[in-house]
Amino acid sequence: MSAPTVELGADVLERLHDYVAELAEGFDRITRHYWAGVYLQGLLLDGERKSMQPLAQRVSVPGWHGDTMQALQQFITDSTWDEQAVLWAYRHVMQRWLVDRAGVIVIDATGFAKKGRHSVGVARQYSGTLGKTDNCQVAVSLHYCAPLGDYPLALRLYLPESWTSQPERMQAVRVPPAHQTARTKEQIALELLDQVRSEGLRNQAVIADAGYGLSFEFRRGLEERGERYVVGVPGKEVVVREPPRWGVRPDSHRGRPPERWYVADQTSTPVAVKHLAETLERTPLSWRVGTNGQLHAEFAWQRVWPAHRWQHGRAADDVPDFDAEARWLLVEWRSDGSIRYALSNLPAGTPMAHAVELWKSRWHVEQGYQQLKEELGLDHFEGRSWPGFHHHATMCFLAYGFLQLEQLRATPPTPKVVVKEPARPFRT
């Protein structure tokens, strides 16, 4: 649930001051801490644009006689404060109130339309947010959804090959050396997941759409980390309905002995999930009440075994373990005629209704990023540098978190006990 905006009366400003004080260590210097509070005010105040100039004109800075816009520009773009230290403190604050064993981590990508080519990460690439290939930035994001509320966890820009192949281009926009190596979105997502899980965050599952779930390596990465997941897959993903048998083909005694493993003839023919779905029984389910009434669709919940790369064979060390156990296939037939597919490693006895509840938790991210972009200005940053982009995104996260805490004030829950003291973040 996204939090409503608030009026910045004296009592709210006092609580905002206390909130920023809890994060002060991350900003390292008292002047940065001060301007962080001012910048947050600008993000929280009403206004169509939250870019630097209108934001600076909107805020009130008692006793300050300098150039407010220049001071805020320096704080966001030029100052060297470590956003990872600030986000560590922010996540620790939010965990005290919202962490729950029923929480889920939603992995997604969000796009930012950009003109020109000089802003960090901008390239002609596909953006699910824009629904097309266009000139844009794309960032990998993690969001936490719990029974009492939700909040963004982490975000990092994805750098296409047109950037990682040009070191001088990355240096010009101050990309840290640690992030100049080419990484896929799936690799970035797993790195961010490792970071937030190392801080003691509790969750029951990881949710992601087909942009991530289509990657066999991503799904295996989640399993290697002991994560339960429900992740989207495209309809062409291939599975079998019984445990597959793998084996090396007989040696023909011509050339090198065969080493790659293939699905044995005794295994039923692998089938694309979109074709398998045509044979499955549909069950109507509803999961929540939306603005236009009860949300509902038809679903199927079927045990399957993935048959990744079955036609081309697999290396011996890549065969038996990962595909030895069944996964769940979740199929959703939507009222608009579209069909969605997901794979899951939830336990064998998991009811379909629970899987649907987890799968549909992605709407929190869609709603949350709409608020982050339209109301809190995540989409309004006009700078070009890596530090500036991530500093601005961090402040937008802090604004969202403050609104969630304000919403919780109306019905204050008991603070959650953090079982494990989070590890201090490494400096980048």
Strand content: 15-25%
* Main beta sheet strand tally, sense and closure: 12 strands, mixed
Give the uncertain stretches in residue-range form: 416-428
Helix proportion of residues, in percent?
25-40%
Number of strands: 14
What's the shape?
Answer: globular
Q: What is the SS-derived class?
A: alpha+beta
What distance lies between the first and last C-alpha atoms, to the nearest angstrom? 32 Å
What's the overall average pLDDT, rounded? 87
Radius of gyration: 24 Å
Count of discrete domains: 2
Report the order of strands and helices.
HHHHHHEEEEHHHEHHEEEEEHEEEEHHH
Treating each run of at least 4 consecutive H or I residues as one helix, how many helices?
Answer: 15
Oligomer: single chain
